[in-house]
Amino acid sequence: MNDPWYKSLGSILWGVFRFILAPFMAIGAPILATYGALHGSEADLNALQLRSTQIPVLIGIEGDSTDCSKYSPCTSNGQRTYLVFPEAITRGELVAVDHKDDIVTVDRQPLVGYLAIGIWLGFVGLTWRYCVRPLLPLDAARSQTSSRWSR
Questions:
Q1: CA–CA separation, 2 vs 99, rounded Å?
Q2: Among 75, 52, 77, which Cα is nearest to 64's?
Q3: What is the SS3 assignment for 40?
Q4: Of 50, 82, 78, which is closest to residue 65 (Cα–Cα)?
Q5: What's the pLDDT band for 141 if we cut at 50, 70, 90?
Q6: At what angle do helices 22-38 and 112-127 cross, to 10 degrees?
């Protein structure tokens, strides 16, 4: 109880990060990629101008809403973010497809794909370490190691 407030806040944030955010992202990213593969946007695929060897993987959706008010015409905006393989591995390219009304623009950002892949792998590692691995039964080597350190 005599700990400063920032220590308790830090432990709360660390618990939320490793037990809630990490599993959500580790599981949610493949679900979003599957959704993008099953319900792909034809406008996005045309804007990406893919070759036959390229595979787009949806990793983010933003907006995609229509705003209509009484005094102005309807406008729609949104963005979908893709990792296009094999360029995501070879050049680390992240591709954002922006929709503003009927105008579609493509923004390619080199090296940012490495960051996105690294963050996802970090979430997978945290999920394995703190959520999955403790649920697995102990094998003989791990149980001897844990009993040796507990003495």
A1: 52
A2: 77
A3: coil
A4: 78
A5: low
A6: 120
**Residue 30: enclosing H or E segment and its boundaries?**
helix 22-38
Model-level pTM greater than 0.85? no
pLDDT tens-digit readout, 84-104: 998 889 999 999 999 887 788
**Alpha-carbon span 57 to 36, nearest angstrom:** 7
What Rg, from alpha-carbon coordinates, does the chain have?
22
Q: What's the 3-state SS for 41-108? A: CHHHHHHHCCCCCCEEEEEEEEEEEEEEECCEEEEEEEEEEEEEECHHHHCCCEEEEEEECCEEEEEE
Q: Are 26 and 120 in contact (CB under 8 A)?
A: yes
